[in-house]
Amino acid sequence: MSVIELRTPAEIEEMRPAGHFVASVLEATSKAAAAGVNLLELDALAHDMIRDAGAESCYIDYHPSFGASPFGKVLCTSVNDAVLHGLPHDYRLRDGDLLNLDFAAEVNGWVADSAISVVVGTPRPEDLRLIDTTERALAAGIAAARPGNRIGDISRAIADVAKAEGYPINTDFGGHGVGRTMHGDPHVPNNGRPGRGLPLKPGLVIAIEPWFLATTDRIFTDPDGWTLRSADGSRGAHSEHTIAVTDGDPIVLTQRG
């Protein structure tokens, strides 16, 4: 039986440093992503920032049932047709690459998780549209994260944005509870029925993470045992924030900028 933990206002305040740190790493790595930069260099940058902040990686020893081995890196770097769990490897970014960066870390015993998609150098209009759709879907999901609603209302808000743009939706991987660990209940799929699922109450902390592929909802696992790629080679984008449900507006703990 799953246990959904609700955080007190004081605990949510204690989670802010983790959120700020995760946001700062995504800002730094996305700015460093340029043609000629190696994915391993981006991972090393995130690793240095973890060390300097006295934080703990959520990824390096992470070994869930779907992973072939412990992840071994601290940053997910998914390029072009890769959309989730991209294992950093010896690849130099090229002009026009679509890069998804996903990062989670623990600070003072609390975890935050966030993701961002960027284009390296010269963008394709279709990639910018895909990224914009994930960002608008994320904003819609966050706006639905209010007491009186349910998880299904978040899921439907996300799906409505994707469907309006004609993107297929995969529900194998989605949002999740966040707290003392990176992944917990409840699961927050990117498609669902309004009025269904867990009631949203103040103190619920979740990661909301819409991700879409341009022309398919099917994925497969790369030979590295981690990286998830589109079944048809189409590109993917991913946006994510850790948020807290309150009596009023939701708090975005991983807000950048």
From TrEMBL:
Its EC number is 3.4.11.18. It catalyses: Release of N-terminal amino acids, preferentially methionine, from peptides and arylamides. A divalent metal cation 2 binds at residues 113, 176, 209, 240. Substrate binds at residues 85, 183. One of its GO terms (cellular component) is cytosol. GO terms for molecular function: initiator methionyl aminopeptidase activity; metal ion binding; metalloaminopeptidase activity. Residues 13-247 form the Peptidase M24 domain. Signal peptide: none annotated. Keywords: Aminopeptidase, Hydrolase, Metal-binding, Protease. It comes from the Bacteria. A divalent metal cation 1 binds at residues 102, 113, 240. Belongs to the peptidase M24A family. Methionine aminopeptidase type 1 subfamily. PANTHER family: METHIONINE AMINOPEPTIDASE. NCBIfam families: met_pdase_I (TIGR00500). Removes the N-terminal methionine from nascent proteins. The N-terminal methionine is often cleaved when the second residue in the primary sequence is small and uncharged (Met-Ala-, Cys, Gly, Pro, Ser, Thr, or Val). Requires deformylation of the N(alpha)-formylated initiator methionine before it can be hydrolyzed. This is Methionine aminopeptidase.
